[in-house]
Amino acid sequence: MAEGGLAVLFCGINPGLMTAATGHHFARPGNRFWPVLHRSGFTPRLLRPDEQDELLSYGLGITNVVARPTARADELSREEYVEGGRLLTAKVLRLKPRWLAVVGVTAYRTAFGEPKAAIGPQERTIGETRIWALPNPSGLNAHWTAETMAEEYARLRVAAGLPPATDPPEDAHGS
What we know:
The chain has a five-stranded mixed β-sheet with strand order 2-1-3-5-4. It is α/β, with parallel strands linked by helices and 175 residues long. The protein has a single domain, classed as Uracil-DNA Glycosylase, subunit E, CATH 3.40.470.10. 30% of the residues lie in helices and 16% in strands. One of its GO terms (molecular function) is pyrimidine-specific mismatch base pair DNA N-glycosylase activity.
């Protein structure tokens, strides 16, 4: 793991109502974050939202751009995104993950004033932290399948220097 302890800090847009009610990220049934995280090799098995604390054992963390819960991300104002980007920058400077993975390119564009940003690694850094914009795993994002999302998430995993997760945390030989 990096000096800061995290290889990747995943950053959702904001808590949905189910997440707000349960206190667990990406808790809405049908959200593809947890299945995609597993398919991409970040976790050795499919984690449930209530197992989010296990992410730390894989060098992963999770947060949001905006703290205010909404039913849909389009209920957030531009000002909320910009302020969220400012607070997220301070958090990243404190935690020093190797990568910040913003789950939703539109949220990244708005929060960081990068209107032309595309999915993938970004030129901008926060201190030493690199940034990757990932597709939003919401079921509303029909442009990406679970499989194509897993491929993009796996590109990040490789860039972060993480081998595919194996069941025992003691890295076994693999190819």
